[in-house]
Design brief:
Layout (H helix, E strand, L loop, with lengths): L2 E5 L5 H12 L2 E7 L3 H13 L4 E5 L5 H15 L4 E4 L14 H29 L3 E6 L12 H21 L4 E8 L2 E2 L24 E2 H11 L11 E4 L6 H5 L2
Parallel strand pairs: 1-2, 1-4, 2-3, 4-5, 5-6, 6-9, 7-8
Helix pairs in contact: 1-2, 1-6, 3-4, 4-5
Length: 252
């Protein structure tokens, strides 16, 4: 019997790469999109090319209850739930003094409330099934360090990072691991580098000298979602090419 995974925001970028990586690992995959249906269908085609089922649904995580309903629907359609990857998200670039309450609420609503609702629905299903599970929350290096002009995004990702740890504590007795993956700069549509080979982009401020690829992040997510990662829980795995280490270099 195939394992079942749901990957939110899997119409492009890290989400698509993760859906494909999980399919390669033997999972049937629930694929979600908000504004790019064609992209989601392309992801599904890649999943099916790996010999796995791919089910596509639209969801707006600005309505957290819709996220919970989506997890339940996809779990029913695919016959269970073993892996949930909270990847969908949005961001803003407003200075703190200019950030509106509506913008603040929107970013936290999608990035934190939506992830919470999906995780809770997924965890409830996993507990009821009694065979454990894996939850992976895609955060950001800005779970750990601030970024000027991104107060709402940083607050949401920081909150999701600590929520990950609380979930890990409470769900461990049920055999469910909960971890975060915190990417640095990655060549995706969100960073304006879709279809760019990251090895051709110079980044002097990153020890690796370049951005990451979506596949590199997906590989970390896929490991944490695998049976091999059964003793890893409550961790935030930073995948940033050494970016966070640069604080030590700049202080020399």
């Amino acid at each position: 019997m195939a394992r079942v995974a749901i990957v939110t925001g899997s119409d492009s970028g890290i989400g698509r790469a993760t859906a494909v990586a999980l399919a390669e690992g033997g999972c049937d995959v629930g694929i979600t999109w908000h504004s790019d249906e064609d992209g989601a269908q392309e992801t599904a085609a890649e999943v099916r090319a790996k010999g796995r089922r791919g089910e596509v649904r639209r969801v707006d995580l600005g309505d957290p209850a819709a996220g919970a309903r989506l997890v339940d629907e996809l779990s029913e359609t695919l016959g269970g739930l073993d892996v949930l990857v909270n990847n969908a998200g949005t961001l803003s670039s407003s200075p703190f003094l200019e950030l509106t309450l509506d913008e603040w609420r929107h970013v936290l609503g999608v990035d934190l409330d939506g992830a919470f609702a999906c995780a809770q629905a997924g965890a409830r299903r996993m507990v009821a099934a009694g065979r454990g599970g894996r939850i992976v929350n895609v955060t950001s290096v800005h779970e750990h360090v601030p970024l000027p002009g991104s107060a709402a995004y940083c607050a949401a990702k920081g909150g999701l990072g600590l929520l990950t740890k609380v979930m890990a504590l409470e769900l461990a007795p049920h055999g469910i691991t909960v971890n975060a993956v915190a990417p640095g700069e990655v060549a995706t549509p969100m960073t304006g580098m879709d279809d760019v080979d990251p090895t051709t982009v110079d980044r002097a401020g990153i020890p690796a000298g370049r951005p990451g690829s979506a596949r590199e992040i997906a590989a970390v997510v896929a490991f944490l979602a695998s049976p091999a990662a059964s003793y890893v829980t409550g961790s935030s795995v930073v995948a940033d090419g050494g970016l966070l280490l640069m604080a030590a270099v700049r202080n020399q």
